[in-house]
Amino acid sequence: MGLFLSKLWLIALTSVLAALSIVSAMGQNLFGNPTNLLSSKHGMISDRFQKHSWFTSDGNLHILIREQQTEPALKLYRAQDSNFTSFGLERDFKGSGSQSTSDGVLINDHLYVVYDTAAGKIVFAELEYSPASFTWALQSSSTVYQNVNGVTAVRPTLAIDSSGKIWVGYVLEGYLDAFKIQASEDGGQSWALVDACLPSPKPTQERSVRLVTGQGVVYALYSDHRSFGLSVLQNSLWNNFGIFFTQDPANQGMTDPHGTHFNTAVDASGNLHFLSNDGDFRGVYMRFSLQSGSWTSPTLIDSTYAAMKAVYMEIATDQKGQLLAVFSATNGPRNCLVTFRSSDNGDTWVEGAALLPLNLDTENARPEMPESLIASQPIFQQVALSGGNQSVVSYIVPQPPVWRVNGGTVSGHLGERIKARPQKIPNISVPPA
C-alpha cells in the first residue's frame, strides 16, 4: 500500500510540475510556497557547505533543521505533500541543540549523520529508513571527538568512500584552530585520526573543511581566512594541491566569520564542482578535474534578474553533465534566490528564473536543496516570520530540455546567458594545469 501511494503521489507531482514548467520556460519568477517548518534559529538550515536534505528510495524528501521552538535540537522532517509545504517530524538527534551544525550522506536508504553538540563533541549516527512505515531506525551511534580541556569541535563534515570507509572532518576551536580528519573502517564503531596533509593550526575562526567522495577519490576541501585549498586522497596517498582560490577583501554584508560560504558536488567522473563568491557580491564557479589534477579558471556569475548578493549558495548534479547552481540575491528591498544551469558539466551556464518568497522577509536568503539533481528540483529558502520566528518556503524548479551548444553560444528557453563570461578574477591565483 505504501508503494502504491508513493506512485500516486509522484503522478500528482508530475501534473503540478507540468504547469510550473510553463512559468519557468517563460523566464519569469517562481514564487515560494510557505511551509510549516518553524524555528527561532536564524541559521535553521545552515551551514552552507553541509548537506541537510535527501530523497529516499520511495521518492520522499527529508530535511534536517535546527529547531528552537520547543525543545532545541536537530530535527529530521519528511515532506507530506507534493508541493513540499507540509512536513511531519520524524525524529531528533540525542545531545544536539539549537547551535548544532550537521552534515549527512544518504546511501541505499541509510542516512549517515554527524553533528556537534553544546558539550563540544562530534557525534556520528547511522539511521535506516523503512519505506513501508515511513520511519527511521537507529542502527548505531558513536562519539567521534570528545571535548578535551575545553577544546571544542565544530562544523563537522561526513563522507563515505566506495569501499565503505567513513570519513569525518571538523575544526577544533581553541587558542589555535585546527583541521582534523578521522576515519572508521568498522561502520563507525571506532575512529582513528588521519593525516590528510591539511594546513597547520592558526589563530582564526574563519576555517571549515568539507569532505566529499567520488569513485576512487576522497576530497578534503578547506577554507582558510578567505582562501580555499584542496587535499586529495587517491591510491591511498593524500596530496595537498594547495590554495586554488582567494577572495577579494569582503564588502559589507559579505563577511564569512566561519569560512562556510561555499558548496560542492561531485559528478560521475569524480570531478569536483565548487561554488563560492568573489567577496564582492558575485558568484564564483570552478571545477577540479580528477584526470588532469587541475582547476578550471574561475567563472564569475552575475544575474540579469536580480542584484547578486552571493553570501549563500548550493549546487546539485544529475551525474550526467547537468548542474544547477543557486545563489542568494536581492530583488528590490527583499532578498531572493537566483538559479543558473549548465548542461555541459560547468563549461557554460544560463540563468533560470528568479525565486521570490512573495511578501515574506528573507533576512539572508539561506537556501537548501538536495545534492542529487532531479527533473523537478525542490529548493528551500529561509524566511522570517513575526515574533522573531523563522521558517522556510519551498520552490519546485523544473529541468529544461537539454541545451544545444553551438559555436560558444547556448540555445535554450530559460532566460539569458549570464552577464559575466568565463574569466579570471583579479587577485585569484590558479595552479597551472
- Calculate the mean pLDDT score and round it: 83
Indicate the radius of gyration in whole angstroms.
Answer: 20 Å
Number of strands: 32
Q: In terms of quaternary structure, what is this?
A: single chain
Number of helices: 1
What structural category do the secondary elements indicate?
Answer: mainly beta
The termini sit apart by 55 Å
CATH topology of the largest domain, by name, is Neuraminidase
Residue share in β-strands: over 45%
Q: CATH class of the largest domain, please? A: Mainly Beta
Determine the fraction of residues in helical runs and give it as a percent range.
Answer: under 10%
Please tell me the total number of domains. Answer: 2
Side-by-side strand order of the widest sheet: 1-27-26-25-24
Coarse shape: globular
Corresponding CATH architecture of the largest domain: 6 Propeller
